[in-house]
Amino acid sequence: MEVAHSSRQSMLQLFNDPEPIRDRASNIFDLVLESKTLRHENYDLLAATCVQLARRESRILLMPQQINVATGISIKRLRKCESVVQRTLHPSFGKMVQPESMKNFCKFLHLPQPVQAAAIQIIKNVVNVKLHHNFNYTSLAIAAAAVFRAFGLIL
């Protein structure tokens, strides 16, 4: 753990961000470490990814090319690590094919009530038929397809 925290500190010093971004990057870093979703121990890669995500949340852009130049970490590895960190931070996408989650998803999109009802019914049918297990689609893609189909039925 000592190596992980020293990597995080050196990365935070390298980019010299304001305190809120440093705090958020540290929080993301600790969450990912605690979840043990990363199979490798490249803490510099994880720290750079956390800084990039914290900056993006604060609407301060840090391009992967900039990280590559400053640290020597490849862009491909940064993007791969970012997807792992995003899945760690937002695990609820896997539950999207549940009717309760679909209701929240529709509310978030500010969909009209008839479209929401149709989308929830479509998801219920997908779950009942176990259709979501037959294809290699993400839960978010299935939810988006249900909303698209609901708009076609209602409007």
TrEMBL record:
InterPro entries: Cyclin-like_sf (IPR036915)
Lineage: Eukaryota, Metazoa, Ecdysozoa, Nematoda, Chromadorea
SUPFAM superfamilies referenced in this protein's UniProt entry, alphabetically: Cyclin-like (SSF47954)
Protein name according to UniProt: TFIIB domain-containing protein
Organism: Panagrellus redivivus
